[in-house]
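Need a sequence for this fold. Nothing fancy.
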């Protein structure tokens, strides 16, 4: 594929997610259990870190990219969502920001006074390490982010993904909320008002 096709991946998602959902519906109950990543499997990811993450933490993906900049959060939005997260989950919960080096540079001043907030690169320097943190977190949060949420969508673990309607490339919409056939009540994928 060309660079343009890779950057504009919406058409890929529009094709692959309905196919995955269709194939999933053909599976037996036993096969479906194998399809979704379990908590036991995600615990096997700890060897990917150069520094072990906290035992319990919330992962929040903050996207900072030169491509599709409408999916980036501005500093004011990050501050507001950060306050909402701290208000809802508590000030003592460990929060790991999943982002690349550009994101760390963009966000470091916002979080410098919060001793319970760290960055994914504090634990691993690789994208695979970022995905491992996404999978190991108690809750994964993403607001208008990128494709790293796909790992969590195929799990049984809680997540909160908030998107603009114009962003959503998947075609499994149900009552203003996107759900996969295997989603549980603590897996929330919905639209920002």
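Here you go.
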């Amino acid at each position: 594929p060309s660079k343009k096709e890779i950057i504009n991946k919406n058409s890929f998602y529009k094709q692959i997610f309905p196919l995955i959902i269709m194939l999933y519906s053909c599976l037996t109950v036993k096969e479906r259990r194998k399809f979704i990543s379990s908590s036991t499997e995600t615990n096997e990811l700890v060897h990917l870190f150069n520094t072990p993450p906290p035992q319990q933490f919330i992962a929040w993906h903050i996207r900072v990219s030169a491509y599709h900049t409408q999916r980036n959060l501005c500093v004011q939005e990050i501050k507001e969502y950060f306050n909402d997260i701290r208000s809802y989950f508590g000030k003592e919960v460990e929060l790991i920001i999943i982002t690349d080096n550009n994101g760390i540079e963009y966000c470091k001043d916002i979080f410098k006074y919060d001793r319970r907030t760290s960055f994914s690169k504090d634990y691993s320097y690789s994208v695979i390490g970022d995905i491992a943190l996404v999978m190991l977190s108690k809750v994964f949060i993403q607001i208008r982010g990128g494709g790293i949420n796909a790992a969590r969508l195929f799990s049984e673990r809680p997540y909160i993904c908030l998107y603009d309607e114009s962003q959503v490339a998947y075609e499994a919409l149900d009552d203003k909320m996107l759900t996969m056939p295997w989603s549980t009540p603590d897996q929330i994928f919905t639209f920002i008002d």
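For context: The beta strands are 58-61, 95-98, 117-119, 139-143, 159-163, 173-174, 177-178, 187-191.
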